[in-house]
Amino acid sequence: MTELTQPPATHPSTTRPRSREISGLALFMLRRVLALVLTVLVGVYLTIIIANMGGQVDELRIIQIRADVSEAVRANPAVAAAERPALIEAQVAQEVERLGLDQPFFWRSLDYLRRAMLLDLGRAEQMSSDLGSRQVSAIITERLPATLLLFGTANVLVFAVSLIVALGLSRRYGSALDRTIVALAPSSAAPGWFYGLFLILIFAFAWPIFPSGGMVTVPPPETAGAYALSVLHHMVLPVFAIFISSIFVSIYSWRTFFLIHSSEDHVEMARAKGLTDRMIETRYILRPTLPPIVTSFLLMLIGLWSGAIILEQVFNWPGLGTLLFQAIGFRDTPVIIGGVVIFAYLLALTVFLLDFLYALLDPRVRVGAP
Amino acid sequence: MRVAALWARIRPYPSAVAGAAIILALVLVAVVTVIAIPYNQAVTQWRGGDADWRMNPVNASPVWTNRLTGGNAPRTMRVTVDPDTIQRAPFEGGLQMRLPLSFDFPYDDFPSELTLMLTLSGTERAAFVDPVWQRPDGSEIRLGAQRITGADRIALSQDRALEGRLGDVPHVALFAQAQDRTRVVQGRYTLLIDAVLFDEGAELSAELLAFGRVHGLAGTDHLRRDLMLALLWGTPIALAFGILAAVGTTVTTLVIAAVGVWFGGLIDAVIQRLTEVTMILPILPILVMIGTLYSTSIWLMLGVVIALGIFSASIKMYRAMLLPLRRAPYIEAARAYGASNMRIVIRYMIPRILPVLIPSFVTLIPTYVFLEASLAVLGLGDPVLPTWGKVLNDAQTQGALFNGFYYWVIAPAVLLMLTGLGFALFGFALDRIFNPRLRST
Predict the structure, then answer these.
(1) Is A41 helix (H, G, I), strand (E, B) or coil?
(2) CATH numeric code, B74-211
(3) pTM above threshold 0.90
């Protein structure tokens, strides 16, 4: 309910030359990027600390080194079978020293941090990508587009529909439709996956018109058009689940926000001048309220990234969430840690986008930026 | 007195009354559950300790589904022998017994399983039993002779030889009509057990379990456990988790925001930066990671949720509310009489914005209730406690929807929804009551 307590923005007046404005924006963005990189650094470092509390990461790496070394030694026909154990021990010790695993944790944690920040996430223990790669980054990049597709679509839909409906409702509040929406707002207490369970129950089992899970039919269609259609068909239920879990509260808060804003003096003035409803909405209500609207959109995105894990699991959607879930099943720690780091990056990217758009939309931000 | 005043303000809002009623009902259920089934008992029962789940059918629907579908599905029948009808004929070095297990079968559907429990006592030697199935129409089916020792549990439903002979699973074939094998012959059945015991002092007792297709008010799961236990105990756990997490995060966040605003400078800057760091920390993946690497104890999860919630994004909101208070005259007055910094923060600044926060606090509770359920659905539920989320997780892994065990998903889901709805309805209404700006619209 942040947007309700925010003071309404006044109409900005831009008189400064364009070039100065752009350089100001660039400077502001640069500062924000630096701040965000620092933030991600601290966030990822915290993740590493959490993941390392039980010494899990270290044990993991030593096991991996041992596996690699023994594989190499066994593959070498020049080494006699009796010499192998001693050679393996020697090489493992050498490798442990080379990687600094005998160093104090603090220095090593900095090394992990560097590797995580560069997205050098190491190799998975059990899992592999569909193409057969054991690299965690390969596994993750393979799953990322599916997550982006599903949640991108759902969010844009929720955002657009709730804004349009809220604008319409704010004009005739108190109507039956308005009261229904207000009454339905508490339904958003349940997350998307929860509605997903019921949607699957109804539309995949009781009345099977949509698939109960997955992203494409098996086997996948040959042509690109049929493939896209199949993906679309599979997307309907999960998108709808996200949609109904957030649409009503979204409409409710926007409607309240617009109601408060449309009683501002400059809107009354425009109305008195006899401007059309459409003009009042676009120029006098939407434009000055754009910054808080964008903020809340991106904040909603942040909230949804986390919810992704379970929704994807419920719908068996092959995205990051399902990947993380499978990694839990395999106890594949490198993939879990990699997934957390990727989520942190996604969130940071969202926050960065937020800052950028905010600066673009609200000139006061880049002038008075701290 | 204050409760009465609050009630007077709530009454005009039907949604608030409905929400309060739901919350009250849930709290009542929680209290009664905790008193009736103590924590330790619930845990051991759910894990199959002292509860005799063996007597329950597998995946039985709740009894009330009968009413819903208009069907007449069988309940579990426990048939024992009437002592007067037992016939004994001793012979040289042994005893011949005949135990008739008679029962009326009035249902329209077949039992889900048939099990014969035989207990032989007073002898070390194996006995020889020959059970014969007598149907209401007078026909007889031999179930196959067996040697038994001690206490034997003969799973008739899993008897492959019998199944092959009858042409269908025994618990269906033994009850089916000859012309239409999908229909049940109703009436009086008798399982006649002829036994030869090779010891004069020996005794045989028999019991027939015809497992039903419905059980109790909540049904059973794949391990024959009565879901009622999990549904009941899920209530106090969900409420405790939701309320503790909401209180923990809101109170700490509020205190930290107030401290930041009051002291300003470096402290404020550090708090602000920490908030930004926490904003990019993905809570659910971190919980997943902790659950995987360390422990899935619900109390550890609660601790982590609160720890990650301390520097949550709401600090920014509280800050905006608290900033104008810093220069308020009554705070100046408090400083003038020599109030300490902490006293000003705790006694003067926080209470001032508390009323505004109560609605958002109430609406925050279901978020955490669902978070606990989410973790359980991911398989990271508490290892010992029965919760709604764990029931959902079991249902999910056993393919409940695919197999048509809808009750297994619907009951915990409805309870979750009810909890969410109760707090959300109440919270939204409180929002309109406490924030006059919303009331006018």
Answers:
(1) helix
(2) 2.60.120
(3) no
